[in-house]
Structures are given as C-alpha cells and as structure tokens.
Amino acid sequence: QAFFCLLLCIPRGSSCPPSCQCTERAGAKAVLCSSQHLEEIPKDIPRDVVLLKLDANSITRIPSNAFRHLSHLEEIDLSRNAIEQIDRAAFRGVAAGLRSLDLSGNRIRSIPKEALLALNAELRLANNPWHCECALQEVLWEARLDPDSVRDITCHTAPRQEFVGKPLLQVLDAGANFCSVRQRTMDVAMLVTMFGWFAMLVTYVICYVRHNRERSRRHSLPGAQPRAE
C-alpha cells in the first residue's frame, strides 16, 4: 500500500528521459540532453520543462506536435543536429510561450514558413545549407532572428548561380526578390494555361464553322435536290 501511495504522490511529468539530466533552479525545470546520440526527440520529457537542450545529437526531423504537451517551454536548443525536415505543425502548442529556438548547424535546406512565422521566439538559423527561395525570404523579413547570426544565413543553392555562397541578407540588399520570381513563374503558367484554353476554343469554332459549311454545300448540290413529279 505504501508503494502504491508513493506512485500516486509522484507528480505527473516529473520523470526524466533516459540519457538526459533534469535540473531545477528557482522553480524552472531544465532538461539537458546534449551530446547523447539521440536520433529523435524524447517522448517522456517532463511537462513542466522550461529549458530543453537537445543540441549535438543526431536528430533528423521535427515532427508535428513534437512539443505540444510542453506548455511551459520557453527555450529549445536543437543546434548541431542532422535535422533535414521540419513539419508545418512542429511547434504547435508552444508558439505563444517560446522565447528562443536554436536551429543552427543542421542540414535544413527549406522550411515551411508557417512553422516559424507563428513563433514569437528569437530564431537562430545560421550554418544550414539553405536553398534561397521565397519562403526563406519571408522568414528573414517577418520572423524574429538573432541579430548576431542573421548574416550567417547563406545561400547554399539558389535560382541564380551568382547568389550561391552569399549571405541571404546581402543578396536581398542587392535588390534580389525571390518572391517576385515565384510570382512571375505563376503568371507565366497562368498565361500558358489561358492561351491553351483560348486555342482550344478557336479550334472548336473553326471546326464548327467548317462542319456547317460542309453540310450547307452538300444540301446545295443538284443531286441533293428532290426531283419534280
């Protein structure tokens, strides 16, 4: 009975993930899982954690709702992992309270802008092999980026070779606009589609006119007239 009573008295979310260290200072809990060869985000993180350090591991993906149950979370350090994919709803549930998010030193080429623009956190995105595109440009202009690392967001690939290897901020300051490139592409695609429909309509009208003329010509031939009695 004492054993079961002890189990009931343990507060929910007070356990610590294996290979991690849980500490508490001034009522704020920190979960430290740095350099533990983790390949995914632990499932049993205490619900009252405020600081979560997952840096220097082998995590490759941040799935949807990865931190949803951590309503007190204010700081996440995911730097120096192998992250390649971040789902649109990766930070759902912690967007309002999160103050700092470090994604530097990963393998991120692109990221859904919805995943970051919903955050109020200060972001560190440096030292990733970014593909410079409209979504990344919108994140740069609209999100809260760490001013000390923003210049290290470099174009690993880009629509134009001259941008490769240059800081994104420098490229944009020079007058480039990746969003207008996408808009022009969409406009061209729309024009091509409209031209295709117009060509089909013209072809139909021409065929219809020719068909009517052919019918009229056949009816006007002498052999097609009824003989008089």
From TrEMBL:
Q: How does it sit in the membrane?
A: Single-pass membrane protein
Q: Which UniProt key words apply to this protein?
A: Leucine-rich repeat, Membrane, Repeat, Signal, Transmembrane, Transmembrane helix
Cross-referenced PROSITE patterns: LRR (PS51450)
Q: Does the keyword Zinc-finger apply?
A: no
* Domain spans labelled LRRNT: 15-51
TM ranges are 188-209
UniProt-listed InterPro entries: Leu-rich_rpt (IPR001611), Leu-rich_rpt_typical-subtyp (IPR003591), LRR_dom_sf (IPR032675), LRR_TM_domain-containing (IPR050541), LRRNT (IPR000372)
- Signal peptide segment: 1-15
Q: Does the keyword Lyase apply?
A: no
Q: Spell out the subcellular localization from the entry.
A: Membrane
Q: Which GO terms describe its cellular component?
A: plasma membrane
Instruction: Enumerate the Gene3D superfamilies for this protein.
Output: Ribonuclease Inhibitor
The record's listing under SMART domains reads: LRR_TYP, LRRNT
What protein family is recorded? Belongs to the LRRC3 family.
This one is known as Leucine-rich repeat-containing protein 3
Organism lineage:
Eukaryota, Metazoa, Chordata, Craniata, Vertebrata
Q: Gene that codes for this?
A: Lrrc3
